[in-house]
């Protein structure tokens, strides 16, 4: 889902209406999933058809409340948003068929900041009746997006929710992904997988042709899984990713990534598992080849008791700069982007040690997870102000120390079923002096030390209730230009008073009308807290929505 030009993830075109499961793999996964998968992988698994056809839908409407600071109210009529989704899965003989669609209109709580989105997807999977274990198919995913993104406010006093007209620009984007695949599996002996993705995207700014761009990427991968012995599995393969960008904004460029990989899963004892692997990658841009990069990954998982698991991992990573980081050049209001074609690739490694403990006390069940991690990067790429504008440059070296705790507990009290879960993350992100081998006192930009999430869900008969609370500490460091100049009107004073961290709470209530219909009511940011994502980017105030969903 990563675009070929800016290297950003096309989150808005993920077919979430047909997602069966979201898997989060913690720690380095760079051998199998690509050298930039240094800190983990998020895997979205689409649902497969079953013997019983399944149709799902929802329709939703919502409204934004007024912000706590009444001076920021700029609208005369309510700001509303709405969305609708549909998906259908069924088997037709030996073929699984899946269809889904999603449409959304958001008027926006900020002036000159709105969005309209539509996406469609098709999933076909055929089981060959003549060759056992042979499956093949095709997935299609496409969409159209029209919006005005928010960049800079007018001022902090009365225009924090008004975009400066000098930066407001309409954006129109199209996205199409075509994914053919074929797989051959023989019991528990071997499996061959060949996957492709042809991804095309187009970015059009009707009022600013110099920012238009078209990009195409063709990704293909062959992967072999083979059971060498009862206690050793091999996963190996090759992959390529060709990209072409034609753009008034970035210029015209062609890139190629080629990689080969192998990973062994070893089980010397029933309760012990080792993983070790190597990946070799090479990137080239416009015919100029980068160095050949080998990276390694290793890990273990030990079951110490019936419900106790110890894990450890180490992995290297490498990220080649995106086209945008090298060549983007433009001026948006008072913000200027400067290209840096000489920027270097970033590399690094990460390690983690964690323990997971299962819990079973009477009617209460659950699990807890505690981990510590450490990351070190060389030539980390960050956008920084160089006196003339913002440019992607290399921070010499950086380190991030951290720890994370997660838990989930479930218990029933008669007809009342409850689940309490949460997580806390601490990071210490600093620049590192390679000469002295010591940390500096300079924090990496736009990081927060503390993040906390706690949620409680309860259900009884046809009724559901959920409470979610979030806390994030203050941002540790930002570019000095935001604090020492008027590049963003009124920001300096606002930042001094409001960079204190924030606490949010969401509430949702639901009722099962019948076996097929469900209605829910959600209030987000119930305390109407004002908080900022990045400089001059006020996040949504309190808003209300109601949703009707069905499954039959």
Quick overview:
This protein is mainly beta. The chain contains four helices and 28 strands. It has a domain at 1-59 and 77-151 and 168-302: Maltoporin, Chain A.
Helix and strand layout, with pairings?
Elements: E1 19-26, H1 30-33, E2 40-46, E3 54-64, E4 80-92, E5 95-110, E6 113-127, E7 134-148, E8 170-186, E9 190-204, E10 213-229, E11 232-247, E12 253-269, E13 272-285, E14 288-289, E15 293-305, E16 308-319, H2 323-327, E17 330-332, E18 335-338, E19 346-361, E20 364-385, E21 390-413, E22 416-433, E23 438-443, E24 450-460, E25 463-472, H3 481-484, H4 491-498, E26 502-512, E27 517-524, E28 543-551
Parallel strand pairs: 18-21
Antiparallel strand pairs: 1-2, 3-4, 3-28, 4-5, 5-6, 6-7, 7-8, 8-9, 9-10, 10-11, 11-12, 12-13, 13-14, 13-15, 15-16, 16-19, 17-18, 19-20, 20-21, 21-22, 22-23, 22-24, 24-25, 25-26, 26-27, 27-28
